[in-house]
What we know:
This protein is α/β, with parallel strands linked by helices. The protein has helices at residues 12-19, 71-74, 78-94, 164-167, 172-189, and strands spanning 2-6, 23-28, 39-41, 54-57, 100-105, 118-120, 133-138. Helix 1 links the parallel strand 1 (2-6) and strand 2.
Amino acid sequence: xRVLVACEFSQIVTRNFRELGHEAYSCDIIPTEGxxxxxxxxxxxxxxxxxxxxxxxxxxxxxxxxAGERWxxxxxxxxxxxxxxxxxxxxxxxxxxxxxxxxxNPRGYPLKFVQSTQVIQPHYFGDNVTKVTHLWLKNLPPxxxxxxxxxxxxxxxxxxxxxxxxxxxxxxxxxRAMATQWSSFIEKESR
Length: 191
């Protein structure tokens, strides 16, 4: 199976699919922290028609999330950036023929236009933290919880000392669930 992990420089999701034997590539405008031979450093929109079976997209949430709402009054240029981010989000979700798609993002402006398919937390998959994540799924089933942590650590995104890139990483348990559950589902569907 050919897997495109859009807007991922860490290769956390990509590695999980690679470990299952899939031809998975990350794609981002910045260099990868992982294996450069599995990374496409470019605008993902230039590669949507490259014959992928599955795309998991992590569009940047800076202008999509409700978290930075307070800056919109003092920085009016952010409105145009939000509009561009929304157009990018929906182009990833709707404007091509990749058979299976997941677009993930925190609670934010895309929800004003289309409801997410599923809301997950890292502690549903064995990572002992909270971070609300919405999934918009096309032809994919919702993820099943794998390992519930009953007393998760405080919200991961609320720590000011975490960098933007650190806050945006996919948690290992979620990445593992995506790779194992969706690989299995797509393999059954293609029989």
